[in-house]
Amino acid sequence: MAAALGAAAMGSLAAHADTLKVGMSGGYFPFTFVKQDKLQGFEVDVLNAVGEITGDDVEFVTMSFSGLIGALEAGRIDTVANQITITDARKAKFAFTQPYVYDGAQVVKRRGNDEITGVESLKGHSVAVNLGSNYEALMKELPYADQIDIKTYESNIEQDTALGRVDAFVMDRVSASQVIQKTPLPLELAGTPFSRLENALPFRKDAEGEAKRDAVDAALTELKENGRLAEISNKWFGNDITTP
């Protein structure tokens, strides 16, 4: 009887199989990056695991980070898997899944730069952030933002900080720690995270988008409950960043 029910369930999934188009930059190690011509990372593994549950084919579409939200709004992709932080402004425009990564905004500096000790020390200095990212918004919301030279980048903020072209950059703590650990660049964390971040998958606020959101959200719940999400996190980060 159980086998029959399982076969029926698989048949139902196949009958409803769809293609889930997932946008990502492919340049945000270790969440999404290309190595030896292969797109990989935490986000790739999570979305593939989601597809195994929903029965959908997952198609990854890479483009510059600053173009991802526009592509979602235009319907060229169904969602964005690139550590999209839930904000009030984004909640007004998109239907989000539950959070699946908990993190914090982190200042990173060139090793030995004693003038940069944390977010408040950025006054009078230049700081790189990825164009259109949550970190660009966070920096501009600081009460002393007019005292900071905020520079937006499409890529290579780590290299320009290491070369001294800017005094620091800001990204999430998890990625920053991985960059420092995995690359030979002379970088180090400055201070402690200054803003808690909850990251999730955004979908369009229409019937089709919300239906896809509901299916992916149910799959995330299953991945949390069966330990698969924590397993993927440990593979890429050595610890579980998927719970508060």
Describe what this molecule looks like in 3D.
The chain has 244 residues and is α/β, with parallel strands linked by helices. Helices cover 38% and strands 27% of the residues. The protein contains nine helices and 15 strands. The protein has helices at residues 2-15, 42-54, 68-74, 88-93, 134-141, 157-162, 173-182, 207-225, 228-237, and strands at residues 19-24, 27-28, 32-35, 38-40, 57-62, 79-80, 84-85, 94-96, 101-110, 126-130, 149-153, 168-172, 187-190, 196-200, 202-204. Strands 7, 9, 10, 11, 12, 13 and 14 form a seven-stranded mixed sheet that branches. A three-stranded parallel sheet has the order 5-1-6, sandwiched between helices. Helix 2 (42-54) packs across helix 8 and helix 2 (42-54) packs antiparallel against helix 9 (228-237). The longest helix is centred in the C-terminal third of the chain and has 19 residues, at 207-225. It is globular. The termini are far apart. The relative contact order is 0.18. Residues 1-17 form the signal peptide. Residues 19-240 form the Solute-binding protein family 3/N-terminal domain. Belongs to the bacterial solute-binding protein 3 family. Residues 19-239 form the Ionotropic glutamate receptor C-terminal domain. Pfam families: SBP_bac_3 (PF00497).
